[in-house]
Amino acid sequence: MSNIEPCPELIWFATNRCNLNCIYCCNSNDPDNLNELSTEEARELIEQVADFSKYFVIIGGEPLLREDIFELFDYAHTLGLPCSIITKGTNMKKIWAKEMAGKNVLVNIALDALSRDICDKLSRREGTCDKTKEAIDTCLKAGILQGITCTLTKANAEETLDIMDFAAELGVEGCWMNLRPQGRGMEVYRELALMGHEFEEYLNNFYRRAREINKRTGLNFYVYDPIYCRILSQHEDQTSRICGMGRYLNVKANGDVIVCLFADLKVGNIREKTLKEIWSEVVSNRFFNEIHDPKNLKGACGECAYNYICGGCRVRAYQLTGDWFASDPVCYLTQVST
Ligand SMILES: C[S@@+](CC[C@H](N)C(=O)[O-])C[C@H]1O[C@@H](n2cnc3c(N)ncnc32)[C@H](O)[C@@H]1O
Ligand code: SF4
Ligand code: SF4
Question: Rounded to an integer, what is the distance from CA 215 to the centroid of its chain?
Fold first, then answer.
């Protein structure tokens, strides 16, 4: 076990509690289920992450709702573990931003639209858009704004292209999370997901805008979706796949360990086993290796010339078809050939 490669990144759902109620939220776990890791358990988790991982990302729920979060930032900082959070920032305070700056915590803020109407509707809370923009300003001034993120849906697709310019003007990069059929995301998926040619057109527009911004500013923008790797490889050299299933670990609020942010594929619980033990089982697991081998893919994805670089989102294929190795139904190439 001592010879295994370290886990490159660990994402922790610090809490299921949230002050918003986004219609697409992948974390629809019961917010009142307070079977959260205690402060002591969270400190142990941080020790383990510092021991065998390079990067700690804290999400939720709303991570800043955890009462002990600053104590935990402090502990990660003491152990030399780089740490960042993803938040909509609607409860951000200037004093917190200063404190985070002192502990080297970087902040990624999720802004779904520049217009109040769309942003507030997606989060189902009036005032989200204004408060999120305020948080962006606060974090920028405190020097801790790492980037902007957003969840890409049909409702905000057009506006997300303008968010790229907005972020570039602030001098930060962006990673867009394409809507996945997970949690409440499953309930709205058919209505809100960009599919087939519509998604293809969006990705090409995104690519053109990202390219233009990059030439001008050197900043990078990315869509977290394997199909975007195909788009990149059609325009330039792209050699790495982004599907992280089984390539990093996520710890849920109750200590369950899952292998993809968007799949409830449980591989253990940190209350029962160490992260290292769980990680060593994951890296040697046959299924997690088979899923990344393009030779095992079926249908259009199996025959696709880009499957070595894309391979489709395996979790999405499973959630929408019931087969982990099926073609990814979101790609236009799988639609024309079936
Ligand atoms: C689960 S949230 C938690 C952190 C914080 N509350 C927020 O909304 O940014 C982390 C990221 O997941 C993304 N996300 C949430 N639901 C999603 C879904 N169904 N599909 C894709 N991304 C999703 C959001 O973009 C968010 O930035
Ligand atoms: S996406 Fe984030 S802000 Fe929205 S409900 Fe989920 S955890 Fe809360
Ligand atoms: S057919 Fe499958 S492997 Fe090819 S680009 Fe589309 S999703 Fe990716």
Answer: 26
The phi, psi pair for 177, rounded to 5°, reads -95, 115
Q: For residues 143-160, give the mean pLDDT.
A: 98
pLDDT tens digits for range 302-317: 999 999 999 999 999 9
State how far the Cα of 29 lies from the Cα of 15, in Å rounded to an integer: 10
Structure tokens at 117: 């109407």
Residue 158 in contact with residue 184, Cβ under 8 Å? no
Tell me: pLDDT of 230 over 50: yes
Distance CA 235, CA 220 (A): 15
Contact predicate 330/227, CB 8 Å: yes
Alpha helix segments (H runs only) across 218-313: 226-235, 275-283, 286-290, 299-303
C-alpha of 97 from chain center = 22
Ligand 1 binding site (Cβ under 6 Å of any ligand atom): 18, 24-27, 59-60, 62, 86-88, 110, 149, 151, 177, 179-180, 182-183, 185
Q: Which of 6-15, 123-132, 239-248 has the highest mean pLDDT?
A: 123-132
Is pLDDT at 1 greater than 90 in this prediction? Answer: no
- Tell me the two tokens of residue 222: 């990315």
Work out the pLDDT band at 338, boundaries 50, 70, 90.
very low
**Half-sphere exposure for 306 (CA within 13 Å, toward CB):** 21
User: Ligand 2 centre and the CA of 150: distance in Å?
Assistant: 11
Residue 34 has pLDDT above 80, yes or no: no
Instruction: Check whether 100 has a pLDDT greater than 70.
Output: yes
The ligand 1 atom nearest the CA atom of 24:
19
State in Å: Cα 39 to ligand 2 middle. 22
3-state secondary structure of 178: strand
DSSP per-residue codes, 148-167? EEEEE-TTTHHHHHHHHHHH
| CA 235 to centroid of chain Cα atoms | 24
Q: Is beta strand 249-251 parallel, antiparallel or unpaired with respect to 256-260?
A: antiparallel
Residue of 325, 334, 335 to mutate, ligand 3, most atoms within 8 A of C-beta: 334
